[in-house]
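Students often ask why we bother encoding 3D structure as a string. The short answer is that it lets us treat folding as translation between two languages. Here is a chain of 522 residues written in the first language.
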Amino acid sequence: MHTVVLGVAGVSAADVVAVARGDARVELSPEALEALAASRAVIDALAAEPVPVYGVSTGFGALATRHISPDLRTQLQRNIVRSHAAGMGPLVEREVVRALMFLRLKTVCSGRTGVRPEVAQTMADLLNASITPAVHEYGSLGCSGDLAPLSHCALTLMGEGEAAGPDGTVRPAAELLAEHGIKPVELREKEGLALLNGTDGMLGMLIMAIDDLERLYRSADITAALSLEALLGTAKVLAPELHAIRPHPGQAAAAANMLKVLAGSGLTGHHQDDSPRVQDAYSVRCAPQVAGAGRDTLAHARVVAERELAAAVDNPVVLAGGTSHDGVVGGGRVESNGNFHGAPVAYVLDFLAVAVADLGSIAERRTDRLLDKNRSHGLPPFLADDAGVDSGLMIAQYTQAALVSELKRLAVPASADSIPSSAMQEDHVSMGWSAARKLRTAVGNLTRIIAVELYAATRGIELRQGLEPAPASRAVIDAARAAGVEGPGPDRFLAPDLAAAEAFVGDGGLLAAAESVTGALD
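And here it is in the second language, the structure alphabet:
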């Protein structure tokens, strides 16, 4: 099994995906353990001082004015976890929780949080034992981090609350820890706060959305090319010199992908055979421009994610050297900051939701064109076998349209909202968790929308009898049929076909089939 070794310099997006989706093991490097011990020494020294230090010897948020005596500090850290584990609603997905836990551990290992090495090791042990805390849908405002979701994770670390074991059954966390020989932690000064104060949930969901969208944007280029073939469109608009004069890199990549898929097609270039067409419709002709803009948005989101992966998000943080109002001990100090604010991540989560909505929208327009006998250039109405007796794909487009309509609602930005909290101490919040949750829904919808276009376009191509599609298109059609995505014929129970198409797109089967002919697509 793949192992990810955590150091002090952050992790890669691939590491996050490997742990969240691939159950990779997690190990702490000697450098991380050394950094953990060094930062903890600073906290221990400050805890012994009479001067109040936020998160070490004070209350939290609007209650930070109270100095907490040493005999109450363990209770203080335990209480913050219990009180902040206030999530409600359905449980979020296992991969989201694993990403959340791993990214919090990544920050802990940076040596900026003051958490003891044994606490960090227990966090790794939970991941390696496939123990997944029960984290609920609602509870995070995306400022002071994803507080409620992270609190539910910390609660499991303490042996409290509920979690799912390797079999997915939700049970008392204490039972699961005992079965795997993991000793619950007793949190000390600052540790409760350090486990809760990060953008880890929204960042984890951003990284997994990027991973999905890198596949889906290439998949959308393939289905756009298939639709162009089925509509007897022209590939001339994909010429590199046309895209070079508007030098957006995503646009050039999308056009190049479509050209690769269409190489050798016997269906393109017939756009004037049945009725004069000087140009194809926008949904066909402008496919690279729309998909390309989304690609460039995705590239920007990737830059933000990489910066956040290199960050140590906590408040307060442990810094080396200098002086501060909190005091200096052995060259280390603790400083309050606002790095937990989720705005940088929230903005790109919302930005991606806009791009996803537009990509889904243009794909649906191509599907609708394939089904309309007045615009499909010779295809039967609704691609039906015996139109009138058969309805063909009429309602598949309804389903696709419903998904697109929801995408448009999901494109409304969450990050434009803010509701003050904590007695106006936290008076501006990012709503980044909400932005991430709606993007996950949008990505799932986009997968289904592309699947419907695939279903319609492959059927349309096969109905063009006597014309041979491109070799890459033929490979896609053959692979789709082998995967249970049926071809033309009389009406049948359609939902299983659409489910097979969704799986074919979602698990990468579509992309693999095309690339078996084209080579790697950009």
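Translate back mentally: Confidence is low (pLDDT under 50) at residues 324-329. Keep this in mind for the problem set.
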